[in-house]
Design goal:
Helix content: 40-55%
Structural class: alpha/beta
CATH superfamily: Metal-dependent hydrolases
Number of strands: 8
Number of helices: 9
Shape: globular
Largest sheet: 8 strands, parallel
CATH topology: TIM Barrel
Strand content: 15-25%
CATH class: Alpha Beta
CATH architecture: Alpha-Beta Barrel
Length: 260
């Protein structure tokens, strides 16, 4: 049982979470940072739990106003220097819910492309954040499609579409590219995500929580890695297979993708 995407850096009780996850029978946690400020924290978590906590270093589009080009270049060099500890570059991508103006969206796509080139250079897979906007007056709304187009045009193959919420047509495109689709615990409540999961082959699927967000039981920041089991129950019903088969398959996929 592997949570393919969470945020231990946003959990005050990270060590307790790790210990609980081990007791719950999990074989690994993959934590992906979204902000430069958390880079040392997660590297240290991996070093402390090298066979259980695996890390991805990324740059969420939402934080682009906090950092300048020099900050990003310094961060990219940090990733290069620490690539032996890193399982993927991510989460990176585009988000038109938070980045709403055309000029900012253009810059966010440029930053995204930098991290794509970095992933190619250091030969690591990519974890992708992609989100549409709503009624943006000064920019576009089709963030998911833009992310897909950039990835395709860049010839990316080792891709995980984190917390995927695109259309069925977009899902088909991703699957045809051979990319992995990661379903978060929102699938417990979301009929749209259940429809997408029904069309996703088990060998191209991973499970994630995006914890502490997307708790299937509340709106509080109380989601935790072992709650992927709730998602597996839903998927078992959708696929008409046993829950343990879902967990075994998605664990195998995560191990292959993150090379763990």
């Amino acid at each position: 049982m592997i949570d393919a995407h969470c945020h231990l850096e946003y959990m005050e009780d990270a060590e307790d979470v790790i210990n609980h996850a081990k007791k719950a029978g999990m074989s690994a946690i993959v934590t992906s940072i979204a902000d430069i400020k958390d880079k040392e924290k997660v590297v240290e978590l991996h070093k402390k739990h090298p066979d259980f906590v695996f890390i991805c270093l990324g740059f969420h589009p939402e934080i682009m106003d906090k950092y300048n080009a020099s900050d990003i270049d310094t961060y990219i060099e940090f990733i290069r220097q620490n690539k032996e500890y890193i399982s993927a570059v991510g989460e990176v991508g585009v988000d038109y819910n938070w980045v709403t103006k055309a000029e900012d969206q253009l810059l966010s796509r440029s930053i995204f492309e930098k991290f794509i080139e970095l992933a190619k250079e250091i030969q690591l897979p990519l974890v992708i954040h992609s989100r549409n906007g709503r009624d943006n007056k000064e920019g576009g709304n089709e963030g998911i499609q833009d992310a897909i187009d950039i990835l395709k045009n860049s010839g990316c193959k080792d891709v995980m579409m984190h917390c995927f919420s695109g259309s069925e047509v977009q899902l088909k495109t991703c699957l045809e590219q051979g990319w992995m689709i990661s379903f978060a615990t929102v699938i417990v409540k979301s009929f749209k995500h259940q429809r997408l999961a029904k069309q996703t082959p088990l060998d191209q699927m991973m499970l994630e929580t995006d914890a502490p967000w997307l708790d299937p039981d509340s709106r509080e920041l109380t989601n935790r890695p072992w709650k992927i089991e709730r998602s597996a129950e839903i998927l078992a019903d959708i696929k008409n297979i046993d829950k343990d088969e879902v967990l075994r398959a998605t664990e195998k996929n995560a191990k292959r993708f993150f090379r763990i």
